[in-house]
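Changelog note: in this version the structure field was regenerated for every chain. One regenerated record is shown below for reference.
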Amino acid sequence: MFLQLFLFQKILTILYHNQTQKEKANDKQMLLWF
């Protein structure tokens, strides 16, 4: 269970960093909604 969450979080962070390099302003707006 913990391993699954850890892997999922890791994938999300990687995807997030890739997005940040492309468009930072949009990500900041998206983060406000979460």
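Spot check on this record: The chain has a mean pLDDT of 75. Helices lie at 2-22, 24-33.
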